[in-house]
Amino acid sequence: MTAGLEFKVTKSDHAKPDAEREEILVNPAFGVNFTDHTVVIDWTLEAGWHNARVEPYGPIMMDPSAAVLHYGQEIFEGIKAYRHDDGSIHTFRPTANAQRMQKSAHRMALPELPTELFVESLRQLIQVDAAWVPKPENEKTLYIRPFEIAAENFLGVRAAHRAEYRVIASPVGPYFTGGIKPVSIWVALDSARAGKHGTGEAKTGGNYAASLLAQNEGYENGCSQVMFLDAESATYIEELGGMNLFFVYKDGHVVTPSLDGTILRGITRDSVLTLIRDRGIPVEERKVTYDEVRAGYNSGDIVEVFACGTAAVITPVGQLKSREEIIGPENPQPGELTVSLRQELTGIQYGRVADRHNWLVKLG
Ligand SMILES: *Cc1c(COP(=O)(O)O)cnc(C)c1O
């Protein structure tokens, strides 16, 4: 029981048979298969949060006039459950996700879910779907997707008076298939994902929708991810469509774009900053121009670039491509710091490296 809310649990009577589930867990593709249950909490303007429940996974009954379908009033989170070698199940910094979701909710005029209720919702789901958390091998985890939608049936343009918080979960393997090899990045010169005072800092569906045109362009040019520059001047590097960026310089110092309101506050970014500082490596959060990065790549001053986020953890970045130029070596190798930070972070998450900052929370 949390915040006065007790979860009513209805077990699925059509859960996947063990053999079928185990087969999925051998090599789960990202976001394709889902567990047997889902968490739902209702919210109304009059009653606040109520009716917390665990239900069998299935389609959402929704009126075609539901506000989310028309005006995109929606937010989400991404967090993982890691099975440790002793079989226990843990998640990583859930309070940070809860707080970020509250900020996203505030920006998108949705109700803020209390932190305890967020963490309890993860616990409730793991309680019924623990068998879906893969064994700790080959970077497998259970990816958990909490989200909130405007559920009022009304076409008027105003903040909905009815909303739903939901949690679904999907067993996943490595985000990028083919091991830790550097990804090529498409630099978007004709589209931006976030403007000043816009929604760039909120984890909201529209930001992703806005990034897809450039992503298609990236795919056509052999790139799997897109780098966005600031919308106002196209001068400063912000981030990828769903990952934050770090640059490692030859003299050892590290730079990441500062959070100026248009960049998503990645929890992986924050954790990586802490791990870098723990090592005594100087790290700067500041504005980074595209020109500086081009010059750094060309002069050899920048020796490693990596992107980070919950889904892909830490991913080395190779070439930067745009319609104007290709920057960087043809055969990039993952950088030393990139690989070592990745090992340390995943080590902590899987319980194999000491959790010095108490980032893990046991779910089951
Ligand atoms: C979710 C997300 C990130 C990464 O955040 P994490 O908390 O590290 O997973 C970075 N950029 C964008 C745009 C995102 O949506």
Keywords for this entry:
D-amino Acid Aminotransferase, Chain A, domain 2; nine-stranded mixed β-sheet; alpha+beta; binds pyridoxal-5'-phosphate; 26% helix; 364 residues
Overall 3D geometry?
A: globular
Major sheet: 9 strands, mixed
Radius of gyration, in Å, reads 21 Å
Low-confidence stretches: none
Number of strands: 18
Which percent range fits the helix content? 25-40%
CATH third-tier fold name of the largest domain: D-amino Acid Aminotransferase, Chain A, domain 1
Q: What is the string of helix and strand elements?
A: EHEEHEEEHHEEEHEEEEHEHEEEHE
CATH homologous superfamily of the largest domain - what is it? Answer: Aminotransferase class 4, branched-chain amino acid transferase, N-terminal domain
What fraction of residues sit in β-strands? 25-35%
Q: In terms of structural class, how would the helical and strand content be classed?
A: alpha+beta
- Identify the CATH architecture of the largest domain: 2-Layer Sandwich
Give the domain tally. Answer: 2
Compute the number of helices. 8
Which oligomeric state applies? single chain
Q: State mean pLDDT (0 to 100 scale).
A: 96
- CATH class value of the largest domain: Alpha Beta
Short description:
With 364 residues, this protein is of the alpha+beta class.
Describe the SSE topology.
Blueprint: E1 8-9, H1 18-26, E2 37-44, E3 48-56, H2 67-71, E4 74-76, E5 79-83, E6 89-92, H3 94-107, H4 115-129, E7 141-150, E8 162-172, E9 183-188, H5 205-220, E10 225-229, E11 237-240, E12 244-249, E13 254-257, H6 267-278, E14 283-286, H7 290-299, E15 302-309, E16 313-321, E17 326-327, H8 336-349, E18 360-362
Parallel strand pairs: 1-3, 9-10, 9-16, 13-14
Antiparallel strand pairs: 2-3, 2-8, 4-7, 5-6, 5-7, 6-18, 7-8, 10-11, 12-13, 12-15, 15-16, 16-17
